[in-house]
Amino acid sequence: MTIRVLLADDQALLRSAFRVLVDSEPDMEVVGEASDGAEAVRLTKEERADVVLMDIRMPGTDGLAATRLISADPSLTHVRVVILTTFEVDDYVVQSLRAGASGFLGKGSEPEELLSAIRVAAGGEALLSPAATKGLIARFLAQGDAGDDERDPARAQRLAALTVREREVLVQVAGGHSNDEIAERLEVSPLTVKTHVNRAMAKLGARDRAQLVVIAYESGLVRPRVD
């Protein structure tokens, strides 16, 4: 199956470079280019994109607003948004993950990293560079951490729906660990871990693993740690 990729960036030169890279792969193709968020949302629907490479800062409707619109559209539940950011640490990235993005990638990443990110997102894993994404979220939540009183009470209450094992798995997911690593740590099979992850996502209303990481921190299940 060919992965249909949409490029959303206000820099035409950068879009051209990404197009050449993506179109050079036999299992993916660029189906459209957008210079702002509104166009990105429209083309995502029209071109039936699977993965959107989304820049944050664009004129008019920015990448954050566009990500929210895509994530909120019931007809686009299969779409995965990968945020492309110039800065390794960017508060917009955390906001985008909260808005429904599947992960982030620095614009300075190697070509193979970008191609791998597209395949991972399209495959449903959707959490790119787990440790890096987790670390980014932890740093920003730590900066704004004012104690339990300001944590999301609704999400904290939803954690009550999880079984003990699902909570254990969620803690491991928030730690940036893969299913295989979690299976080894908890001494269960990777398939069992995948089942627990899927059930936790369903109960917590999370689109993917990236959203589980955000929920784990916002609910207070996992505490940010700044080394």
Automatic annotation (TrEMBL):
Residue intervals of the HTH luxR-type domain: 155-220
Pfam families per UniProt: GerE, Response_reg
Signal sequence coordinates: none
Segments crossing the lipid bilayer: none
Modified residues (4-aspartylphosphate): D55
Entry-linked InterPro entries: CheY-like_superfamily (IPR011006), NreC/VraR/RcsB-like_REC (IPR058245), Sig_transdc_resp-reg_C-effctor (IPR016032), Sig_transdc_resp-reg_receiver (IPR001789), Tscrpt_reg_LuxR_C (IPR000792), WalR-like (IPR039420)
Entry keyword Lipid biosynthesis: no
Keyword DNA-binding annotated: yes
Keyword annotations: DNA-binding, Phosphoprotein, Transcription, Transcription regulation
Domain Response regulatory: 4-122
Name by which UniProt lists this protein: Response regulator transcription factor
Species this chain originates from: Streptomyces plumbiresistens
